[in-house]
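name: query_chain
kind: protein
chains: 1
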Amino acid sequence: MPQYPQYRPRRLRRTPALRALVRETHLHPAQLVLPLFVRTGTGVRRDIGSMPGVSQSSVDEVLRDAERAARAGVGGVILFGIPDAKDATGSSAWDERGPVQSALRSLSRELPDLVRVADVCLCEYTDHGHCGVLRNGHVDNDATLPLLARSAISFAEAGADIVAPSDMMDGRVRVIREALDGAGHVHTAILSYAAKFASGLYGPFREAAESTPQSGDRRGYQMDSANAVEALREARLDIDEGADIVMVKPAGPYLDIVRTLKHETAHPLAAYQVSGEFAMIKAAADRGWIDGDRVMMESLLGIRRAGADMIVTYFAVDAAQRLRDGHVE
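structure:
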């Protein structure tokens, strides 16, 4: 390694053009996925107080948001449903007239080149807010699996390119893969929330998706924040069961997990910059404590640098527009 003064690293930092020439990590709009919250009705747009700029929207409004994302070059959207009715088993999740299914059909027709991802979980659809069927106050893993599979098939039939189980039930990827293949959806991919940690950063999402548990919490099935080796085991299990992409959630506090999973599995890897991460940046920027646009881009670049191939983020459209305008710093 050459030493100072012969070698001066600052030489290649002097101008934007020089920095761009030797930049090691690149962020592209097509690597971003925008979450959208869908509910029934027409002309509906209900703002989420803890997530500035994010709303629960009817299908026609979701289509507008998706069109804007597509124009900015965003790679895809992931849909979460807010049904009119909830019950103990989350049966609205596989209603062919449900908000997500309706949105998928509209997106397939109007924006066929935009990747359509459907979140597969029961928490938005159950009246108790948990991600599966409750038995004696606890989520029954095996009783939940066929319901998740039924939901995944419904989304695939409506036009989902990818289904994304986020429930953290053991064995759900295998059951969903077998169900999709058995129903003729062999080309529908699975994006598994393989390492989904029980995090305090999900609060704003639960407001947006109306999915707060009515009792207890989700620590009995989501991962313990202290565990890294277990995350690798979870990812390998899901890959073995048929996951086409695995995901780490949240992204920012778990960049070590992102790096480990990418390095150890060499599998397509997603990371979810969750609602709390988004809300903190927005709140600090609103108070003038940080440069919001700069921190937005820095946070996304950090997730990419750690190894994520794609990023689910509420910043997707704003970041994509800045990237297209040449703002990479």
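note: The domain at 27-324 is CATH 3.20.20.70 (TIM Barrel).
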